[in-house]
């Protein structure tokens, strides 16, 4: 038999932080206070009156508002729900009305779910979460889904705070994490509801883009996944639009840095990546003045590059490793063709590929080798349809020829203006792992290397 909702909340408050609340049982004349957790008062402090309880809660709510949730003893599911109330007289009237109707009522501080934090659920060794939402976000699409240890490490890195939750075991714990202290214990983690369960351990569906990766940027999320997996990631500072700057990764032997724009979703080669420091705020304002495309700017430690390139999973499910000697930015932009790489470099990259694929499934990543080991500088999930001379499979009514010497932006423009049914033949040498190939795959436009290029 499940506990009544306010009883369950009282039990949870004994072991962790909960949003400030006062609960009432129904009475046709005067609602009876049951439980309370209000900052500055002892647990289950009995207030002198209904008005005193609601006033005390309202005064201590950071948003200056409270919510009212009602339910019946035989069902924990909410009945009437009122959000963001600020008028004490209105609040008291609603509590009295619902109580007279035989409903239990919980009054709790309003919690801003759009403060840059996340909400979600922990169950069966998996954490799922999203920003700008309540724990019910898991009932929608686009939540981040990670093994619990990965999720805790990632969230603690991003917010710089420990995640304080009870061990959910096989049970289901609803939680939220906030940049500012919240709740009765004034910590950064709130626990909303716990339900015991005998369900088997779950499997995380690790994939991005998701709602959280869009918050911090596609590159940032991929690098954080690489970091929590224990792969070498150059020391990276993320300067986000909505979250305080945070740093992760390992120091390299170089004192130089790369400045990398970080779109909400992968946009191959579209926005600035440059060696050296640029003003991130000027960069954001210049390349994305509306704030809709770029989530962050990354300052990443440079790796002294002996070789650099990319690795993908091709249409046959096999790894393709390409690169050049030195830094790989010109290769990725299609300005230099793949070179024959030393066997030991290929072996090192393939080793990282198989290690990553074992945990994530098919992946794509950009790498730099400093002569001693591989560093991951971008990580994406998923296989490609590319193989040999076919960059994107499919037939076309006719084919448009594009010369790689025209540049990546001209290809982007061409793809936007080409009508349906037209494929692209690429003239010139370009790698299957380059931004040229990535852009064609993103647009799902049938694309092949011309015969002279593939020869």
From TrEMBL:
This is Uncharacterized protein.
């Amino acid at each position: 038999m499940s506990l009544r909702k306010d009883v369950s909340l009282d039990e949870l408050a004994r072991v962790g932080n909960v949003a400030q609340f006062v609960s009432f049982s129904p009475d046709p004349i005067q609602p009876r206070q049951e439980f309370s957790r209000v900052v500055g008062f002892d647990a289950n402090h009995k207030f002198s009156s209904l008005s005193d309880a609601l006033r005390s809660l309202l005064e201590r709510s950071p948003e200056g508002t409270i919510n009212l949730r009602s339910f019946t003893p035989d069902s924990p599911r909410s009945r009437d729900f009122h959000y963001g109330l600020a008028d004490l007289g209105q609040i008291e009237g609603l509590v009295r009305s619902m109580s007279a109707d035989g409903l239990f009522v919980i009054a709790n501080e309003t919690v801003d779910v759009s403060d840059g934090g996340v909400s979600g659920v922990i169950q069966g060794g998996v954490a799922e979460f999203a920003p700008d939402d309540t724990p019910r976000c898991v009932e929608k699409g686009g939540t981040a889904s990670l093994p619990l240890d990965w999720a805790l490490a990632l969230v603690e890195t991003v917010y710089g705070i420990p995640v304080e939750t009870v061990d959910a075991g096989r049970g289901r714990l609803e939680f939220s994490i906030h940049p500012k202290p919240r709740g009765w214990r004034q910590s950064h983690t709130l626990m909303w509801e716990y339900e015991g369960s005998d369900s088997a351990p779950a499997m995380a569906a690790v994939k991005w883009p998701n709602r959280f990766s869009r918050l911090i940027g596609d590159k940032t999320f991929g690098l954080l996944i690489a970091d929590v997996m224990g792969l070498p990631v150059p020391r990276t500072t993320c300067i986000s639009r909505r979250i305080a700057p945070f740093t992760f990764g390992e120091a390299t032997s170089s004192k130089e840095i790369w400045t990398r724009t970080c779109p909400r979703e992968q946009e191959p080669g579209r926005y600035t990546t440059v060696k050296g420091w640029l003003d991130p705020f000027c960069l954001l304002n210049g390349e994305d003045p509306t704030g809709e495309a770029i989530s962050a700017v990354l300052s990443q430690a440079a790796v002294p590059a002996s070789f650099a390139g990319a690795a993908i999973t091709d249409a046959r499910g096999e790894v393709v490793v390409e690169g050049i000697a030195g830094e790989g930015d010109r290769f990725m932009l299609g300005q230099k063709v793949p070179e024959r790489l030393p066997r030991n470099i290929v072996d090192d990259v393939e080793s990282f590929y198989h290690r990553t694929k074992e945990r994530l499934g098919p992946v794509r990543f950009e790498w730099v080798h400093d002569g001693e080991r591989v560093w991951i500088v971008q990580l994406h999930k998923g296989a490609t349809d590319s193989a040999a001379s076919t960059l994107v499979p499919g037939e076309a009514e006719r084919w448009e020829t594009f010369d790689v010497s025209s540049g990546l932006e001209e290809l982007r423009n061409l793809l936007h203006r080409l009508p349906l049914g037209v494929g692209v033949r690429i003239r010139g040498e370009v790698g299957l792992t380059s931004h040229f190939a990535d852009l064609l795959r993103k647009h799902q436009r049938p694309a092949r290397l011309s015969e002279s290029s593939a020869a």
